[in-house]
Amino acid sequence: MRNHADTSLARKPEWLKWMGACLAALAILLGSLGFNTLRLSQASAAELTENIITDASVTKKELNPQDYTTQLDMGFKLPNGIHSGDTSTITLPDDFTFNANLDFDVKSSDGHTVAKAHLDAATGKMTLTYTDYVESHSDITGKISAAIRIKTDKVKTYGKKAINLDVNGKFVPAGEINYGPWNGDNPNETIAKWSNTDYNTGTIKYFIRVSARGEDMKKVTVSDTLRSAGMSYDKSSFKITRGKWVMDLGIKSFVLQNGTDVTASTAINYTNEGYGGFSINLGDLGTDGYMIEYKVKLNHAPLNGEQFKNRVLLNYNDKTEEFNSTVTWQSASGEANGYNYSIKLRKTDVNGRTLKGAIFSVVRDSSGETVGTITTGEDGTGSLGGLLRDNYTITETTAPDGYEKADPVKITAEQLKNDAKTAEITVVDKLEEKTSVKVTKAWDDSDNTDGVRPDSVQVQLRADGKKSGDLVTLNEANHWTYTWTGLKAKNNGQDIKYTVSEVLPANGKYTFKVTGDAVSGFIITNSHRVERTSVSVSKVWDDRNDQDGVRPSSVSVQLYADGKASGDPVTLDAANSWKHTWGGLDKNASGKAITYTVKETSVPHGYTSTISGDMASGFTVTNTHTPVVPPTPPVTPPTVPPAPKKPQLARTGTGLWAITIAGTALLLSGAAFILRRKDRGQRNTAANR
To answer: Which residues contact 359 (CB under 8 A, 6 or more apart)?
Structure first.
């Protein structure tokens, strides 16, 4: 029974066998997947053991406690078969470290990002973490540059210091530097300047030391100028300290003692000199000195090896001293750079013929700085070197005679990336389009009636508002017209707007107005307001108020200018009160005053005509008529018939009146006679006495 029972227990159902086989296969599959996943994960994060550095060197080999940085340049070649996430570590020797903690891209020779680099200034390690680019490419090469410094706080001995790199456990020599003592500050120094670079913030901090030797300085002014594009002052960073500079013999350097911060009370005057500047008037210092500190910001990401220049002037005691500073940007990059790239330009026309005399400006796009010019020579080529590998704009500023300037040309950093480190371009100019402009003079001055028209005038052609060429004279000889030919039609691809203007005659009698355009021609009209006058006439009748009734109802009067009839005769009659005024008359003719007169066109029958007055007071035309007086008939006294005889009457009053008169006369005659005799007697008596 036991054996039977055992046998039955040993036998398993078929479905159980099948399930077990499936579970076993699943376990094997999961195990295999887990192992592969682990292996892939481990591969993607593996630290390479190979040495990737093919060559290494430093640019500056003489260092001291005050000048302690240099640039490390390394070439690399990656082994094939590495994976995204793999890393390499490059460690500096103990006496050196990196200038700052930095992250940047490492690029291949064809410009692709190969790895992400991280610099750790505390440990002196550079870690490269590779991208997926390495999985699809082989035989990858490139260059890495980084600023390194000697640890002045640690290295206390002078001499040669070897720079042996630890690359994944392999040592790679990068040469050696000579670390020597610093000679110290100049004890006779009056002005000095130095800087520190903050690669993390992209700023440069400057220090200006004034009057370290303690000379009695008067009328002191410090003037600073930025001399590279892309630099600007951080106005909030200024700090000005006054004190006394004392030489510390232990460190061979000046130390400012008893320093007082005078920033708030010191005026900083900013200027536009160079790329910006400032000046500070410190007045009379005596034996005191100053420390001026400030930061400069950069408006672009500097390239490794890029230089930034600055100058400070010290004016004192009627003297001037100058100190120049050049900061070379030494951070890190995935490619070697430096001022060792060139642009070569070839200038031709549309037919391929080379052209000389073209001038181009070269502007670095990132900073906006004009870094130089290129002028084509006899062979039509020109070049500019000493460039950083960056983007540039080439602009033709002067085209060869007879040609239009070409459009600006862009040069990219990639175009400079070749063994020759040179970008070569060809710029083609088109023949210059020409045009002409005509000007004609017109006069609005009543045919020069006042005689003030000049013999000539001068006109100026202008192109886009600017004078073009010399003044041109218009006169009778050239029929008061001129045409400019062979003029440029375009400037930088834009139509040139031509205009003309006139230099007013010296006598100031004319104004001018310009009409027309460059296509149809310009007309310059000179206008002069002609002097005008007026003449009046009035009719007077001397005919005893038309006693004879022969006065006409109207008369006709003619105006004469210098003896010639001027206009039509005018009618004078009772309706216009026998008056008329000619207005708007020319005062002059050919520069001479006109003499105006009037004359009656037909003297009325029976009248005579006389004219009096003048142009100023007016003319009077007097018509005279003497009325006819009939003869006086003889006067015949009337016949008086004889009076009838009357009877004789006694003489009464009439006769007595006659007697009285006769008697009175006789009496008076007698009295006169008596008086005469009496008077004669008195005169005789007087004579006898």
So the answer is: 373, 374, 375, 376, 396, 397, 398
